[in-house]
Amino acid sequence: MEPFRPFSARLVPVVVDDVDTDQIIPARFLKVTDKVGLGQKLFSDWRYEADGSPKPSFPLNDSRYAGAQILLSGHNFGCGSSREHAPWSLVDYGLRAVIATSFADIFKGNALKNGLLPIELEPAHHAALRARLEADPSVEVKVDLDAQTITLPDGTTSSFPVDPFAKRMLLEGVDELGYLLAREPAIAAFEASRG
User: Fold this and answer.
1) What is the pLDDT of residue 30?
2) Which uninterrupted H or E stretch holds 47?
3) pLDDT value at position 171?
């Protein structure tokens, strides 16, 4: 993973409550262990017709949102079964963060471990951002993980919670294994001192 730095990005709206992991990536696509290509399966049942052609009305197929790096969703994003493929597909699509009013705990943990930042906004700030995006699809927000803030287009800054250990790993650009391996000399020294 790359270290997570402050960035500004456009948003793509899929503002639906209770988006579950099977809607994010249907179970029939979970037979792989490689993350590459899963972005094409993201929201597959909502995004494509039965014949595989894109549904023009779905936001990920709308050229106004091409290149967006933040998904704006609703309440309780990522509920349902635990599957790492859900954040994998979001990241492979090119998303760096998801903004919602709340997240399912397991999804939040999986997202943080895979370089995807779940940003939980207060309902009033979420509603303001949604209204601004509806008025101007090219709107951008600034995300600063270190400060745990998101700056809305009108300059309003809102803070968001994040697990301190997950935050540290994202800022360092490592996963849990990388974190432990970087501390291997200290672990070896401790073991040696215990005789």
Assistant:
1) 82
2) helix 44-47
3) 96
Residues whose CB is less than 8 angstroms from the CB of residue 32 and which lie 6 or more positions away in sequence, other chains included = 38, 85
Q: What is the domain range of residue 23?
A: 7-193
Q: Strand ranges (DSSP E) for 74-184? A: 97-100, 117-120, 140-144, 149-151, 157-159
Report pLDDT for 32.
78
Is residue 1 situated within a structural domain? no
Number of domains in the chain: 1
CATH number of the domain to which 98 belongs = 3.20.19.10
Per-chain mean pLDDT for the chain: 94
CA distances from 150 to 6, 47, 110, 117 (A): 10, 28, 21, 12
Return the structure tokens found at 86.
Answer: 């859900």
Output the six-digit token pair for 43: 């929201």
- The band of 131, judged by pLDDT with boundaries at 50, 70 and 90, is very high
**From the CB of residue 172, how many other CB atoms can be counted at a distance below 10 Å?**
14
pTM of the predicted protein model: 0.92
In a domain, residue 184? The reply is yes
Q: What is the DSSP letter of 3?
A: -
Q: How many whole angstroms separate alpha carbon 116 and alpha carbon 169?
A: 12
On whether the CB atoms of residues 72 and 11 are closer than 8 A, the answer is yes
By percentage, how much of the chain surpasses pLDDT 70?
A: 100
